[in-house]
Predict the structure of Aldehyde Dehydrogenase.
Amino acid sequence: MNVKDIFLTMEYGPAPESDKNAQEFLDQHDRRFGLFINGEWTEGENHFPSLNPATGETLAQISEASTAQVEAAVAAAKSAYPSWSQLSGHERAKYLYALARQIQKHSRLFAVLETLDNGKPIRETRDIDIPLVARHFYHHAGWAQVMEQEFPNFESIGVIGQIVPWNFPLLMLSWKIAPALAMGNTLVLKPAEQTSLTALLFAEICQEIGLPKGVVNIITGHGSVGEALTLHPDVQKIAFTGSTEVGKKIRRNTAGSSKKLSLELGGKSPFIVFEDADLDSTVEGIVDAIWFNQGQVCCAGSRLLVQESIAEKFYAKIKNRIQKLVLGSPLDKGIDMGALVSEEQWNTVNGFVERAKAEGLEYWQVENCPTKGCYFPPTLFPYVSPASEIAQEEIFGPVLVGMTFRSHQEAIKLANNTRYGLAASLWTENINLALDVAPQIKAGTVWINTTNVFDAASGFGGYRESGFGREGGKEGLYEYIKPKSIKSSTGFTIHNKEVNLRSYIDRTPKMYIGGKQARPDSGYSIKVSNPAGQTVGEVGEGTRKDIRNAVEAAHAQSGWAGMTGHARAQVLYFIAENLSARAEEFEQRLVEASGYSGKDAKLEVEKSLERIFTYAAYADKFDGRVHSTTSRHVTIAMHEPVGILGVVCPKEYPLLGMISLVLPAIAMGNRVIVLPSETSPLSTTDFYQILDTSDVPGGTVNIITGDHKSLTTELAKHFDVDGIWYFSDKQNAETLEKLAADSMKRTWIESEYDWLQNPLQKVFLRKATEVKNIWIPYGA
Ligand code: NDP
């Protein structure tokens, strides 16, 4: 064939990358690897093979860590922790920088090894995975350096257990290890059983740079090894990326243990194409969205939503484009798609496709797909119903499902019609439309006219069942630090002397739902006594139905979230004004119902007023950021309200505790269901008169009185409650977190806090918000 012939066919010849160095690396280890514990290599008792999914050949034998070896790894991390955490940020930065440099120096070996082990194209490992890995270590070297200045009231957590999946083996490792080390933690990481090799090469790099022993430990094995790690009492935090199913299991396993948890789980992300989009660019976008890494991407744009007016034209373009996708040896630099990670994954993907075909759904599949190895043809189901299995479930393979919409409101509804909320991609030439739609999509990342771009400077993570916590960006670092101290206030003296019940009127304050007083559905009331045993009132005994009604009222009040911070601040100041006007009455109530001295009651009301002012002030000041990502984007980290929060108040500080919890939540645009102090609920039930007169829209704050245990259970089970702040009896924490796993609610549980000083005032604001990163193309 001469040059002219080549130009006529425009076909690529093979361009294989040599795997010589990677094979030599495997040979040097006799194709058998141990565990990296306390800076040494230890043989596992059993081994299992790691396969090349493109050829089926066995690459190496990997050790299965025993329970004793998991123990040893955690013990090593624990003993390394004191000295590592006490190093200066600068010292830790030097180690992270050295890791970054070594990764760059060995980048090709890493890329080839990853391709052999995972089956993904060398083009991706070489140009995307490994450069991003190095970028993560560089970026976090910087965070180590400036930690003391940037997080002055925070410290490291301790031993971190990290579990990563097989789709981006080394990249996920770097997302976990770099921030953990930067913030002064030590760790034990378990890679996925299918793809351990690059993590083991990384362990060698840790040895090469002289990282102190025990700071990083890598243990290999199956899910049971990960499970043992999550259950270990000396592991203070778990960072997990993987399936929603295992994420929920980890949430349940760690419930009530006080372990910090970040979960980056599955997705079914919408890829929305409006009629004014540049269709040719959008087609390239869709190729990246769903056929990058064979579609084995948690944020893959796997649900295509196309405006009806252009659907046919757009589908014709996609059909034409996918026929040109080249599948073949992942080591060939000219191929677009390699093999799925394993036969098991191939069977899972194929199962979804066969069931969809059996439903009679129209589909197109690429024909020239290799028949040997775990290759799966790019597949498109262009017209599916939003309720069908393939439209709802994460397939985690190169399978795209399509739906059409007419108006942009319909697009938003369809986009949000999922239990997930990881990412979304919008395509339009109209910036107004894009910026109107982006905030309305429940997803942690929204890409405008782009997709699947990542950077260490930007947070990544989900809403809803896509998990919680962020990785990357400043927001991601909070996952690896904790406030320096959470102490109780020195406290007021609570008297149990009988008092003259001046303000006591024989009435039963009702509950407060949707801006109206509401009788308890049960028809029962509970007697409220003061510490001296005098009856000071009665409150309604709330039940499941009251919680349901309150959640419905909160749900209906979506307007509160849409108000500007300035407008919300006005309402909050008005609350303070009205409380101030009735300060004496509230003081009296504290004296009579809660056993306060007059002086302490005055102080609690004063502090409450001050706190309302604080959060009114922050309503329009707790800004997001614009991240300095490496691509040409403005990456806006927006603060959004979490949604509907259950707020379970402490027994002590019945007024101040409630205000300190409710005010930051509503200042950030959340709606709340408040369970007042179990022993002293009357200061909160009195408070609804203040809410009524302060222009707080009905449904923003709902108050349900009664037994915390049963009401918290109802809140935890409710799928429309997005998070629960729980400051009541610790013994209910385990049940709460177990139940919260079903809908992946965010839970925040503390048993003590200094309500008088409020040292964590900004932490409340962070807990009241989700960070959404919106990537907008910018500059030339
Ligand atoms: P898993 O969630 O099972 O695996 C992720 C990691 O968790 C692996 O290291 C795994 O170990 C480990 N693990 C498994 N069970 C436990 C446990 N009980 N406790 C602690 N760790 C555990 O994903 P799979 O690999 O099994 O893939 C299944 C499906 O999950 C895929 O088809 C895909 O849909 C989805 N998935 C989603 C990902 C995402 O990023 N959203 C990533 C990977 C998969 P080991 O692999 O050794 O068993």
